[in-house]
Amino acid sequence: MRVLVVGSGGREHALCWAIAASPLCDKLFCAPGNAGIAAMAECRRIAALDFPGLSDLARTERIDFVVVGPEAPLVAGLVDHLEAQGIRCFGPTAAAALLEGSKGFTKDLCAKYGIPTARYLRTADIEAAKAEIRRRGAPIVVKADGLAAGKGVIVAHTLEQALSAVDALMLDRKFGAAGAELVIEAALVGEEASFFALVDGVHALPLASAQDHKAVGDGDTGPNTGGMGAYSPAPALTPALEQEVMDGIIRPALAAMAQEGRPFTGVLFAGLMLTENGPQLIEFNARFGDPECEVLMRRLKSDLLPALVAARDGVLDQISLRWDERAALGVVLAAEGYPETPRAGTEIRGLDRAAGAAAEIEIFHAGTKRAGDRVLADGGRVLVVTALGADVAEAQARAYRAVDAIDWPGGFCRRDIGWRALARKPGRR
């Protein structure tokens, strides 16, 4: 097969890394790609939202299968655009990707079909939003309805923070049109976890669990980001809880989307809060998480490509997957100033030295470009350093040894990725 991966981040690097290892893949392309992806795929400088350019590339290069990584082109309808031309794609249609494109749509779907989630108000009226906040009190969650690169959720611990978040989203339009409508949501109490399933509209194949670290600073402090690190598996998601998620959230959501005339194919990513009353849905995403994808791909022992094709073709019930029993942990290195104003163009040295520190290390590029022989930062989240280990502690130690081998004064990272897993007591649920 001739395969095209659409996107330029760490998630797409991890997908390219996995797909390139498939004996079914004869030739791999990525658009637009990055400096790391270029080592394993032919990169073309075509933006993920340049639908005509991607169509031309697919036809010219006789692409057999397209894997769409980021959420923006999915929500905008790239899968619809390419499939209409006979180009097979992995990912949901625009109608199905609304599960991520509108948090309000997802909350309404959950309410209609009995999928467990927090109480909420969906509104486009600034005064109604503020009245709801005053009525409920803090802590409370304020969410931009639309896409905001993982940064449009504010967990407010005071009324003042919540009211300021409404102004930032609706008046100042911090995230543009994404904040034209808000979801005001009760704050759930518990431990967050990420759960992924490949789905083909009818069947769901669970993937491994993972846990992300959204806040920019150690100890989960500071503003939310797209993710500063992740590990897999997530000890908090026991096999019994995973089954509960499949039976109470994933399968009901699949059935609900089919009932609504929006059958979902691709990756269904459930952001969860593990509460005393069981798993509750925080939000759905319509693609692999980032940086969760990086640690999932490190643990996947099966060939990824046939599973993606089966999801598109509606035959996931014929697929099974094998996973490495070891833990994988990934540390995000971000550019100074992230998530507000990341500094671009700084040089990164020592990548080969860091990658060669141990066989268990793999470094995925998330926002890089080449300038001759130099690798430069070209984004907010720039690298994801991953490691395998017998447990989270060993994977963490290896990952940070590799991080410390990288010479990049213009970058920073959290130093506590995996802390929740390490803090758990043996046998604790």
Describe this structure in words.
The chain is an alpha+beta fold. The chain folds into 4 domains: 92 residues, Rossmann fold, CATH 3.40.50.20; 68 residues, Dna Ligase, domain 1 (2-Layer Sandwich), CATH 3.30.1490.20; 128 residues, D-amino Acid Aminotransferase, Chain A, domain 1; 97 residues, Glycinamide Ribonucleotide Synthetase, Chain A, domain 4. 32% of the residues lie in helices and 28% in strands. It has 14 helices and 24 strands. The strands form 6 sheets. Strands 12, 15, 18, 20, 23 and 24 form a 6-stranded antiparallel beta sheet that branches. Strands 3-2-1-4-5 form a 5-stranded parallel beta sheet. Strands 6-9-7-8 form a 4-stranded antiparallel beta sheet, with helices on both faces. β1, α1 and β2 form a beta-alpha-beta unit. α1 packs parallel to α10 and α7 packs antiparallel against α8. The longest helix has 21 residues. 51% of the residues are buried. The model has no long low-confidence stretch (mean pLDDT 95).
Write the layout of secondary structure elements.
Elements: E1 2-7, H1 10-20, E2 27-32, E3 42-43, H2 51-60, E4 65-68, H3 71-76, H4 78-83, E5 89-90, H5 94-101, H6 103-113, E6 120-123, H7 126-136, E7 140-144, E8 153-156, H8 159-171, E9 182-186, E10 191-200, E11 204-206, E12 211-212, E13 215-217, E14 221-224, E15 229-232, H9 239-259, E16 265-275, E17 278-285, H10 292-299, H11 304-313, E18 327-335, E19 347-348, H12 351-355, E20 361-365, E21 368-371, E22 374-377, E23 381-389, H13 392-404, E24 411-412, H14 419-423
